[in-house]
Write a structure and sequence with these properties.
alpha/beta, six-stranded parallel beta sheet, 6 helices
Length: 187
C-alpha cells in the first residue's frame, strides 16, 4: 500500500477488524491514523500500542457514529490536526445474536443505526473534504451476511451489511469524477 503522507480514519478501530486495519495502515507508513470509536478508553490503548510500534501519528477520538454532531466534531479534530482526510474505513458495527422471535423494532433500528446509518453519517462528513482535495478512498466493511443473510446473528445484521453494499455503490458512482473511490470488503 502506498500510504505515505495519507491520513486515515478507522471507525470502530479499537478492536477486531478495525484495530487490524489501523495497524496495517501504520505498518504501511501512513502519516496519521485516527481511531474513531465510541469506546475511547480502548481507542486510547490501541493508539498508544501503535505509536510505540510504528512511526507516524495515531489519534484516538471518542466518536458515536450514530450522532452527526459527534462525527462532525471528530472530522474537525482530524482536519485541525492533519489538515487532510484521505481515507475513511466505515468499520464500526454491532452484531448481537438475537433469535428472530426475540427481535424487536427497537433492536432492529439500533443495529441499522450503528451499522448502516453510521456509515452514511461518516461518509457524508468526509465527502466535502475529499471533493476539495480531489482525492479520497472510502472503504465499507460489510459481511458475507449481505448476500446470504444473517445465519446466527440478528436478522438486521445482514440487512445492514447489504445496505452498506448499496451505499458504497451509490458513493462510488456519485463521486468518482471527484477523485473519490469507494469499495466494499465483505469478510
Amino acid at each position: 500500500m502506498k500510504l505515505k503522507d495519507k491520513v486515515a480514519i478507522v471507525t470502530g478501530g479499537s478492536s477486531g477488524i478495525g484495530k487490524a486495519i489501523a495497524a496495517k495502515f501504520m505498518e504501511a507508513k501512513a502519516a496519521g491514523v485516527v481511531i474513531a470509536d465510541i469506546n475511547n478508553k480502548a481507542g486510547q490503548k490501541v493508539a498508544k500500542e501503535l505509536t510505540e510500534k510504528y512511526e507516524g501519528q495515531v489519534l484516538a477520538i471518542r466518536t458515536d457514529v450514530t450522532n452527526p454532531k459527534s462525527v462532525n466534531e471528530m472530522v474537525n479534530i482530524v482536519m485541525s490536526r492533519f489538515n487532510r482526510t484521505d481515507i475513511l474505513v466505515n468499520n464500526a458495527g454491532i452484531c448481537p445474536v438475537v433469535p428472530w422471535d426475540e427481535t424487536t423494532l427497537e433492536n432492529w433500528n439500533h443495529i441499522l443505526e450503528v451499522n448502516l446509518t453510521g456509515a452514511f453519517i461518516c461518509t457524508k462528513a468526509v465527502i466535502p473534504i475529499m471533493r476539495e482535495q480531489k482525492y479520497g478512498r472510502i472503504v465499507y466493511i460489510s459481511s458475507t451476511a449481505a448476500s446470504v443473510g444473517s445465519l446466527v446473528a440478528h436478522v438486521a445484521y445482514g440487512v445492514s451489511k447489504g445496505g452498506m453494499v448499496a451505499l458504497m455503490k451509490s458513493v462510488a458512482k456519485g463521486f468518482v469524477a471527484d477523485g473519490i473511490i469507494a469499495n466494499v470488503v465483505s469478510p
